[in-house]
Design a protein that fits this description.
alpha/beta; Aspartate Aminotransferase, domain 2; Aspartate Aminotransferase, domain 1; eight-stranded mixed β-sheet; three-stranded antiparallel β-sheet; 14 strands; 13% strand; binds pyridoxal-5'-phosphate
């Protein structure tokens, strides 16, 4: 393997994380809901306008909490894309609900809102749009369907921090939103997440479920004189040292996002000629969406073996990766879920997708190397050697 491999990801630190963690230790409050957690919650509320933000140990935990909060029951159906991370589905399967996989849009790789209504049955309870790469789903259409069929909307906004749809922040549009601060996301704390509650009637119970089913949050606010077991729940609070790390990142979240968006645009410009030559397709961002530079991906031609592209890139010093194995084709997805239609777009695009290195500190020269190497590899792997396809796909 090349020694100067350009890594796919490199977690970014602002430099203030360790100082804030030391402060959390000095505060003598290392369990959940300490000063840093409250600061982070308030930041998310101020930035997004959500009614209540609550830090959690992960986006997965936020989705688990959502499924409990919405009282999903065995046999209930939840509409979602198959092209997503396992937690989107697993959270609802834990309640006995059935994920119903709907195909994605060719342009954004997001849930195709035009196919949702055909998937609705008397058992449908919830729609889970996933904002892939921080590019918003068609939320107006999704909210309209939800209203007409009396369904809840949980936004999987794991990749969506500081991205928006028609000026509205992702995660603050549906009834509930879930953010991730996993090391691979834009804003990080190792493992972490947040629940965004937008429907105020859900706030009190969200706090109870997150606090092991107790009204401990109300007790700490002095609203009750003791706390007791009220409902089902789990331990869904991160410790305050984790929140201290996160606070260092939230303080710089806008600069971090701007740097990623600039890297995204560099790739987009460098790869324009390759798209014109029909060698690949670049991401498409609808005018209503402002994204956050979370992922830069390309789609290679259907005739090209994507895994060979990844192998040859790596041999040449570029670590690029594929993304989701569609859930409907995974063992647990087949066992627990149901397909709506043949999911042809999902299968085709997932098999053609290549994610390029994206991290703060990636230099212009490194990006140029990624693009030059990609051009060499995809040109070589074209079915007709050396012949440019001269088409769009
Ligand atoms: C990363 C991710 C998750 C899981 O986030 P964790 O914080 O690691 O639990 C869920 N859904 C999507 C779409 C993701 O990208």
């Amino acid at each position: 393997m090349a020694t100067d491999l350009i890594p796919f990801n490199r977690p970014y630190a602002t430099g203030r994380e360790a100082g804030y963690i030391a402060e959390a230790i000095a505060n003598s409050h290392l369990s959940g809901d300490g000063a840093f957690t409250r600061r982070c919650n308030r930041w998310i509320e101020d930035q997004t306008g959500c009614t209540r933000a609550l830090l959690t140990p992960s986006c997965t935990a936020s989705l688990d909490l959502s499924a409990m909060l919405l009282d999903l029951e065995p046999g209930d159906e939840v509409i979602m894309p198959s092209y997503t991370f396992v937690s989107t589905a697993n959270a609802f399967v834990l309640r006995g609900a059935v994920p119903v996989f709907v195909d994605i849009r060719e342009d954004t790789l997001n849930l195709d809102e035009r196919l949702i209504e055909a998937a609705i049955t008397p058992r449908t309870r919830t729609i889970v749009p996933v904002h892939y790469a921080g590019v918003a789903c068609e939320m107006d259409a999704i909210l309209d369907i939800a209203r007409r069929h009396d369904l809840r909307v949980v936004e999987d906004a794991a990749q969506g921090i500081l991205a928006g749809y028609k000026g509205r922040p992702l995660g603050a549009i549906g009834d509930i939103g879930a953010l991730s601060f996993h090391e691979t996301k834009n804003i990080i704390c190792g493992e972490g997440g947040a629940l965004m509650v937008n429907d105020r009637t859900l706030v009190a119970r969200a706090e109870i479920i997150r606090e092991k089913g107790t009204d401990r949050s109300r007790f700490f606010r002095g609203e009750v004189d003791k706390y007791t077991w009220q409902d089902l729940g789990s331990s869904l609070l991160p410790g305050d040292a984790t929140a201290a790390f996160l606070w260092a990142q939230l303080e710089e979240a806008k600069q971090i996002t701007a740097k990623r968006v600039a890297l995204w645009h560099s790739y987009h410009e460098m790869l324009a000629p390759l798209e014109q030559e029909g060698l690949l397709r670049r991401p498409i961002v609808p005018a209503d969406c402002h994204h956050n530079g979370h992922i830069y991906y390309v789609l290679v031609a259907p005739e090209i073996d994507r895994n060979r592209v990844l192998g040859e890139l790596k041999a040449a010093g570029v670590h690029a990766v594929f993304h989701y194995v569609p859930l409907h084709s995974s063992p647990a997805g087949r066992r627990f879920g149901r397909m709506q239609g043949d999911l042809a777009i999902t299968d085709s695009l997932a098999a053609r997708l290549v994610r390029l290195p994206m991290w703060i500190g990636l230099s212009q020269a490194q990006q140029q190397k990624v693009c030059d190497t990609l051009e060499l590899v995809v040109s070589k792997l074209q079915p007709v050697q050396g012949k440019r396809l001269g088409r769009t796909f």
